[in-house]
Amino acid sequence: MTLPAKKAQQIAKNVAPRRFVFLLLDRFTMLPFAGAIEPLRVANRISGQTLYVWKLAGEAGDSTTCSNGASFKLDMGLDEIDREDTLLVCGGIDVQKATTKGVLNWLRREARRGVTIGGLCTGAYALAKAGLLDGKKATIHWENQDGFLEEFEEVKLTKSVFVMDGNRWSTAGGTSSIDLMLKVIAADHGEDLANTVADQLIYSSIRTDQDTQRLSIPTRIGVRHPKLSQVIQMMEGNIEDPMSPADLAEEVGMSTRQLERLFRRYLNRSPKRYYMELRLQKARNLLMQTDMSVINVALACGFASPSHFSKCYRAHYNTTPYRERGTQGGGTGVRLSI
After folding, report:
1. CA distance 262 to 269
2. For the residues of 5-55, what is the DSSP string, one character each?
3. How many CB atoms sit inside 10 A of residue 164's CB?
4. Closest CA to 118 of 177, 160, 159
5. What are the structural domains, with CATH classification, of the chain?
6. Which of these, 195, 198, 279, lies nearest to 239 by C-alpha position?
7. Among candidates 84, 78, 81, which has minimal Cα distance to 25?
8. How far is 76 from 293, CA to CA, in rounded Å?
């Protein structure tokens, strides 16, 4: 498939291709990487020109392996790149371990030279660790947001699909890389080319940086009840200082008994039980993604004492917070579900 002749003529001829350098961290996630590189390839084919070129970089060796076990041959190490290049860090499982001192030094050096740098999926962690997102807006996969917020207070974390804050970019993972690259292609060569690339990829709903990465609460829980959604939103926004069922009910204009019936009918559990599950899920994220002490995790999730926290955690996950932390090697592994 190619653009109509008139549209193709509107794309500047003899312009130097824009180059992307993909830094593939150890055990990076394939989908966000493929979602970034494939729109570039398709844009070249559709336009009949070499609009984009790319290189694969890694810290050591001639190849690297992604989280699904596939290996990729590398074109370069942590060498100096052109200031006009765009550097995209591809993260995935155990991104903290993969973000080595050598990687951090390279990112900081290229940032000082004015290179545009982005993080795909958990790649935003590497940028934040290097201090490149301080004072900037950014995003990361929703599963990693709890730990990220605790470690990088200077970053303005959002729930957007992708963020472009000046020359610092970030995506939420999964297919969000496609949305980012379609935005880039549209800015470089026009909306027509970007839309044609999307059609070629069978990508029928292009998202913007105003779209959030998670499904709406009604879609997520499979129930479309406005008051139930409102209560769950309040629960999710008040994890550290949990609200009582009576206060939740009052906020949506119903009695506590009506609230109990609503949760039993649609979610087959009490509001208290549902709230506890939300708090324990955040606690598990913090235990697995950060080095916060168990006591601080308990406090951050609304538990007044470590003993109560441990009792609730064991009842839900069949293990203690201390053992959970131990299996994660001290909390140094940022996990990713996709």
Report:
1. 9
2. HHHHHHSPSSPPPEEEEEEE-TTB-HHHHHHHHHHHHHHHHHHTS--EEEE
3. 18
4. 177
5. 5-200 (3.40.50.880), 217-327 (1.10.10.60)
6. 279
7. 78
8. 39
pTM of the model: 0.73
Under DSSP, the state recorded for 243 is: P
Q: Report the SS3 class of residue 230.
A: helix
75, 8 Cβ separation under 8 angstroms: no
Does the structure show a pLDDT above 90 at 84?
A: yes
pLDDT beyond 60 at 253: yes
**Whose structure tokens read 């001829």?**
13
Instruction: Determine what percent of the chain is predicted with pLDDT higher than 70.
Output: 88
Reference 296, options 271, 268, 273, 325; nearest CA is 325
| Helix boundaries (H) for the chain | 5-10, 30-47, 95-98, 101-112, 123-129, 145-151, 176-189, 191-200, 217-221, 226-237, 245-251, 256-267, 271-289, 294-300, 306-317, 321-327
7-33: average pLDDT: 84
DSSP state of 297: H
Strand partners, 160: 212
Q: pLDDT value at position 142?
A: 86
Predicted pLDDT at 290: 80
Phi, psi dihedrals of residue 105, rounded to the nearest 5°: -65, -40
- Residue carrying the six token digits 């769950």: 232
Instruction: Please indicate whether residue 317 or residue 224 has the higher confidence score (pLDDT).
Output: 317
- Quickly state the pLDDT bin for 214 (edges 50, 70, 90): low
DSSP sequence for 72-91:
EE-SB-S----TT-EEEEE-
What is the residue type of 319?
A: T
